[in-house]
Design goal:
The protein has two domains: about 1-15 and about 60-85, no CATH class; about 20-55, no CATH class. It is built from two helices and six strands. It has helices spanning about 25-30, 35-40; strands at about 5-15, 20, 40-45, 50-55, 65-70, 75-80. A hairpin with a 5-residue loop joins strand 5 and strand 6.
Length: about 80
């Protein structure tokens, strides 16, 4: 059985000390949130109270952060990691 692989897939630049991960269809709603809502963090919910985005501070604030994909034995992305610290 092959071990899971960790692969650098890119970088994300942040200039608000906050990052949002979401389904692209909801990016407009994330952009409309106030800075206070971003700082509080947590989930953005849709009209059915289902989470559609996760918002988090970045640890060091603004910067360029590496993004890694963790690939399972079958070659599928099993996890994404953003290294903030």
């Amino acid at each position: 059985m092959a071990r899971n692989k960790k692969k650098l897939i890119g970088h994300v630049c942040v200039d608000t000390a906050t990052i949002a991960i979401c389904d692209p269809v909801h990016i407009g709603r994330v952009a409309e949130m106030t800075p206070e809502e971003h700082i509080e963090g947590g989930n953005l919910l849709n009209e059915n109270n289902v989470p559609v985005a996760v918002i988090s501070s970045t640890g060091w604030g603004d910067g360029r952060y590496p993004v890694f994909a963790h690939i399972d034995e079958e070659g599928r992305v099993a996890q994404i990691t953003i290294k903030f610290l």
